[in-house]
């Protein structure tokens, strides 16, 4: 049980339970000043090349470098890790943001959610539809929480993801049904794991300490056993409070272990296991102002202290994790053909109890018995809280087989990827029951409250005792099962050095069954669908460093696509949606990618994605494909080194995401919820010399509106909104020796209060983003 579940916690006393991270951090920091312990070369005996590398301290040592990135410009990833993308990113006719581990470190991100918070065109959403927590994201305005892939295969569980074992993260924009299958309306996200490397042995140990009781330790070790076998192990321990939030924090730990055997040049067999655990406190943020309380900015988050926490310390919690095993066999009998077969079994889970901060209300002139018992007086502003909860388990078994073939038909070259996939997925959701009486620290029996009310300005969330949550034996689980199969063919056709065409097609079948309790009865729903998606792209290369492309692509959203929900608003298989055809999406993208120099890539794209048959509710249990949604805009991106000392990574996105047709006339013209029109980021680092690099990131996001696709309107007729903001971060790296490094990250330098997303509701609330924090990380390489 995490320390964050204890009822006696106070902000000043939230401390990590275990000491291993602090010991690791202290040992690592001490080792930084003991070069001999790491067999490191000192500056005095270093060669001229070591004293004056082409790219200064932004470049990692060769055996730690990302194999997909430019070795002299690590911010510039040159190849995708997805086998379905056979060409360099410069020549791939899609917008692809490839975020290497060096960028992840320099922006101070330690989770997938923190990476997304700094990525233009990708925005965070609140967990909704019965799943309040997990990596819910939007890409180009469209839901993508089930469009996350790990090493080329879908990772369907909506849970929290870490980055300790990640080599790079790729955000692939635009409908991607021919590459990823169902969903992928706005695009998909692919996480590439760190892989074993034959012929190399190294270990990198990192320890970090920081404000907000931050402790983090990681190990990345690669061991070569002969010339045919290698092991790689990554380990994590992390414990920290959430900056700027009382009582909120998390303990995380994980391991990623993989083995690679390559008995011949043609054959390789790899097996890996990923395990992760998160234990912490759930947090729903701040309520919105309303007619009872406002300061002229009604329908924005209430002007209360940023650290106000409206939860229940002693009852609320958040636990999630993953256990995933994968086996992959690759066989390339010649340079013309490569075969791959991958089998994966995984379990993910997401358990929580959380308190909802509802709209402020005024205590009546004659307080109710409950208000009086809580000590509230007439006229006092208070917040009632509800109790969303989840005990969700996701089991997945998947197989993927494909072949990559290079062949020529006369003077025309082809690179063909053909394959098939199958998957079985099962989601089980259960309910919690709470003890009606508990024993406090003095041995007294206490009747536990069914609901909690907090003072708006001075909430006191600490119970002083613990209310255990156990699975309710009287409520049957909700079970969702999916069987899916697909076949795909992608051909990159090269007519000449100047002209290329990419053609792709994928056929999917999707069979889903959902059952569970519904009031006093039960439900059983089934749907069986199939759909085809395409991509056709034309690439023109007037010179080698420049690609100009036009692309058309499609995707499909079947009912029940989002397996964590049975609500139609969130893509679940709701009553009345079983017989609907999939929603269809199409996109046109015009873009260019230009290597200004070998170390710097600039990208630009114009896009429009249209969902022509959006699902809408006409009446209770009656749905029709009558809506139309459109997202269009501009994207710019830059990655790499302008000079040997100056590195850049960033982008700009403008998105006009609106409802263009609806059965509800008032919705037409409304913006999509939680999608800003503008967001931009730029990370810049500059090497002052061969030891010291300094830099920072600026991030801007315009305001957000609440609701689903349609706006949420309150009784005062105003749409819920959170304001836009600027955020500034800083980073500095110092290398005492070749094998050691110190990195200082300061995030949210100005301690700006901003919000990640708005939860839809007639009484909405907003997730509070982290406040200012600083961390110091030391690393040593053996």
Number of helices: 6
Shape: globular
Helix content: under 10%
Tell me the total number of β-strands: 44
Oligomer: single chain
Strand percentage: over 45%
Averaged pLDDT, please? 88
The major beta sheet can be summarized as:
22 strands, antiparallel, barrel
Radius of gyration, Cα only, in angstroms?
A: 26 Å
Query: Which structural category do the helix and sheet elements fall into?
Result: mainly beta
Q: Detail the poorly predicted runs.
A: 1-53, 710-717
Straight-line distance between termini:
35 Å
Characteristic terms for this protein:
782 residues, mainly beta, five-stranded mixed beta sheet, 6 helices, 44 strands, globular, disordered N terminus
Provide a compact summary of the structure:
The chain has 782 residues and is mainly β.
Description of the structure:
By secondary structure, the protein is mainly β. It is built from six helices and 44 strands. It has a 22-stranded antiparallel barrel. Strands 3-9-10-7-8 form a five-stranded mixed sheet. It has a three-stranded antiparallel sheet with strand order 4-5-6, with no helix packed on it. Strand 40 and strand 41 form a beta hairpin. The longest helix is centred in the N-terminal third of the chain and has 13 residues. The chain is globular and about 90 Å long. The two termini are 35 Å apart. The N terminus is likely disordered.
